[in-house]
Amino acid sequence: MAEISLVDVSLRDGNQSLWGATGLRTRHILQVAPVLDRAGFLALDFTSSTHMGVAVRTHQEDPWERIRLTHAAAPNTPLQFIGSGLRFISWEPVHPELIELAYQRLVLAGMSRFVVLDPMHDMAAVRQSARAIRRAGGTEIIGALTYTISAVHDDAFYAGLAGQMAACPDIDRVYVKDPAGLLTPERARTLLPTVRAHLGGKPLELHSHCTIGLSQLSYLTAAELGVQVLQVACGALANGTSLPSGEQLVANLRELGHTVDVDEKMVALAGRYFTRMSDAEGLPAGTPQPYDASFLRHQVAGGVITTLRRQLAEIGLLDRFGAVMDEVSRVRADLGYPIMVTPFPQIVCGQALYNVIGSERYSNVSDQAIRYVLGRFGRPTAPVDESVRDRILSRPRAAQLAAEPSPLPPAELRRQLGRRLGDEELLLRATMPAEQVDAMLAAGPAARHYNPELSAVLQLLAGLASRQPPAELVVERVGLRLELRGDGAAGG
Q1: Extended beta strands in 199-243, E state
Q2: What domains can you pick out in the chain, each with its CATH number?
Q3: pTM as predicted
Q4: What is the pLDDT of residues 460-478, one digit of tens each?
């Protein structure tokens, strides 16, 4: 029987998968961080550049300060950042020096564990990113093998990548990342031993979403096969399109005789917090998913599906969700079967939406899809369909994008944006609209305290504050009575 460690992904991937990356604010995170710290997780999957951009754009909160505050609240558990090494916040590739500056600032803010995920499995790019992270002071670097199903991505393909990661001195660990939850227990029995055999003793982790109900069983198989670390989520941020429930997985692993080095009481306490927050804020809770074979075809990960549903609802086209998902499969085939990890699912889903609502397929094409066909994100594993390629590159916009200047290094950006900018603000202004960064700075420090039990009362009071004040107001529930009177007196 194995000794298993757990990585908790609630704060980053759980939030992204179930709450569109927008559910958690700084105050929500700070209330639960000490509990997660005491649970005994190997690490906390905490943020990505995408999440950092959401903090600015959606909540007007400083993502750098969020990292510092969380590191102070959970000092004993490494915080994990995931990135490709190609981009930071924006989708466009950035200068390598800007990425290295981002790594330096992340380490100084409190990040110590980094996942390098190249969406094309370009090992030269993976090695370059790993070296940059090591120079910046990252103490643990994990190479990602992103799992997908195609005629190309067989066990030998992943074994070759694992061997290259084993030979890289700047990669400490490797994980199989299954963003769409496609890994079956049967495939795990061939894939995982093959990868482990080529790792030269480096530890192997497994990260698999619950999208079609396979991951709980695949995790138990992985533990049996010698995988040492499994990634989970807690409470309402588990299951659904997120990752397996930590509470349930711990019970199952122990029932089968494995040792799991976590405090199950703290894991359960964190789970209850997220569930109470889900109820208080009206956020969806993850539930076990039925098997859906269509995911084997389109392979869209949970967070992207959640975001796509929200975007379709916002433009009044939620009823076209099924048609868009069918078109996703066709677009993915047209583009050479890219692995569906950021930014590729966003590119594919966006193009699928254009194709569904347009007069004909590819009558409208996003800049990112054009850049993909131009090769700005690397070389696809399979060639782009020739007729689609010709149609996209024949557009006048393709010629304009082909002539785009190379990304600017930090020194030139500083000359353009302001020589007195600090590094953290420079990184935000270089990759985000100025008005969004201005709004974040104007908003001031983020709130640091939150109690889901008081959320409904606080929302009520905020609503009342915007209206003509009543002469007297009484709020009453079990264990609480609050009286407000117009003369300034209050009782409770």
Answers
A1: 204-208, 229-232
A2: 3-281 (3.20.20.70), 295-402 (1.10.472.90), 410-443 (no CATH), 452-491 (no CATH)
A3: 0.86
A4: 666 767 777 777 777 777 7
